[in-house]
Amino acid sequence: MSHDADAADAEGSVTACREGAILRLTLDRPQRRNSLTHLMIETMVRVLTEAAADDSLRAIHLRGAGQDFCSGADWVATNSAGGPRPRAGELVRRIPHAAHRVIELVHTIQLPVVCTVRGWAVGMGCNLALAADFAVAARDAVFWEPFIERGFSPDSGASWLLPRLAGVARARRMLLLGEKVSGADAADWGLIHQAADPAELDGAVEQLLARLAEGPTVAIGLAKQALNHGLQASLSQSMSQELFNLELSCRTKDFKEGLEAFRQRRTPKFDGR
To answer: Where residue 222 sits, what CATH number does that domain have?
Structure first.
């Protein structure tokens, strides 16, 4: 391998490919199980921020190259490169604008995000999958939060995502005991949307993406926003937010198409506007 190839592997990349109304993001560092470098995280922040303002997009697909989804943030590559020791408070100063921003964007962007998980989903990679709207995993995939085994506390949203998705008891098993969870068990726990046999994984993901990309995109985005709001709001506050979102969605072209299709007893053909 050439020096340039070594350097590219060390940095890794996130490739963005547009297929119709679907944006596919691929974590491309398979030799390191797609562990995330600073450059990869910065790219994801930029691409997702741009996607949030692109009215022609209708779904986002997140996946890893090779046999694994993502083995987390590469602390070896990012903090042990032989440079000077970071100053005190460096993590608190930097991570909210980098790794945490990626999780926030995936969780809040008003587009449905589908994540394909095969192999390892570790640390931030695990949380990235859980932050997606729909994670579809191979039955033999492995979800793992290894923070305690490494001697530091959880980050990248683990303590928020896990108890809400799987309950506090199971969150403790993953965060305090470091238990690994298979794709099959993750689906049974409600951590993810679906588990599939490895040979059927891509087909299941494509079917889901096609369904979402043909849906009323504005209404889907507003429903996602309302779900997120409701996680930390009272019933009254949630219904007020729903009413505001309803006012917006009723002004869309897709709303008119939905009503017309209902009257004509046919399947609606939404265009995402």
So the answer is: 1.10.12
Give the chain's end-to-end CA distance (angstroms, integer). Answer: 48
CATH number reported for the structural domain that contains residue 38 in this entry = 3.90.226.10
Q: Is residue 210 domain-shared with residue 239, that is, in the same domain? A: no
| Number of domains composing the chain | 2
Same domain, 230 and 128: no
Q: Has residue 186 been placed in a domain?
A: yes
pLDDT tens series, the chain, 273 aa: 444 445 455 789 999 999 999 999 999 999 999 999 999 999 999 999 999 999 999 999 999 999 999 999 876 545 544 556 655 444 555 555 578 899 999 999 999 999 999 999 999 999 999 999 999 999 999 999 998 888 888 889 999 999 999 999 999 999 999 999 999 999 999 999 999 999 999 999 999 999 999 999 999 999 999 999 999 999 999 999 999 999 999 999 999 999 999 999 999 999 999
Rg (CA), the chain: 20
AA letter at 27: L
- Which of 167, 122, 118, 125 is closest to 145 using CA atoms? 122
